[in-house]
Amino acid sequence: METLIKEFLVFMQTKKAAANNTLLSYRRDLSEFLRFCANHPGQPTVKTMDSKIIRDYNEWLKEQNIASATINRRLAALRSFLGYLKAKKLIKENLVEEMAFYRESPKTIFEVLTDKKIKKLLEILAKRATPKGIRDSAMIELFLATGIQPSELVSLDLEMADLGAEYPEIKICHRGNIRKISLPFRVVLALSEYIQKARLKLISGRSEKALKEKALFLNQRGERLTRNGVWWIIRECAHSANLKNEVTPRALRYNFAARQLALGVSSEKLQQLLGHTHQHSVDRFRERLQI
Q: What strands lie across the sheet with 169-174, from one edge to the other?
């Protein structure tokens, strides 16, 4: 079964263009199913798997003292895997297809950051004259102005920020698709200061490789920032403004979406700005924001 899971992951990557995080999640969740099978008295295989095995797995998951959302995710991963096996005619039916998943708790309603809180955050960041402080300020400004995701931010290259154009904009790449977002004047100023001052200092005295680094946002070693690095930076910024649980990448993205909707931007335009493929993704934003 392990070989089939590897084939399934390759299929998801090459045919379905699944993101790396999605693949990691599938691998982790299906590894749990393999662990269950290895310890099950019946030692189930693809050929011997039946509804009782699936029920046993469901009960086993409940005994692991994990959240219902995690159980649902692991069952969903198994459903996708079995759907793949069914399509290849290795099994006759997808035994998870009709299973009722656990009912999730009501969705959290996001509260948009007030202008006062945003001003407080930006004022504190503006006081930091270090290369790191200037970088962090530019990052937060960009999050607020574009609704960019951490994975998109760390993939930005210098050439993707066109700050000298008549209408400054930034190109954001998501799964091979590029969208352009216009930048407000204050964001242009923040990015310009970072690029012309802070970024140069971050690569000063570094290796030849660092001097050739194309990434827009760099860490203190002169290398491209990672997603984890972005999370830690935002967390530290939130702490400094005493907004510990209110400023996160997701909160900043929801804040951008809410403000666009408040300005009268259509759902279709917001879908384009956020880089969503499907309209229902924007509908979820409206639901979580109660707009």
A: 161-162, 169-174, 177-182
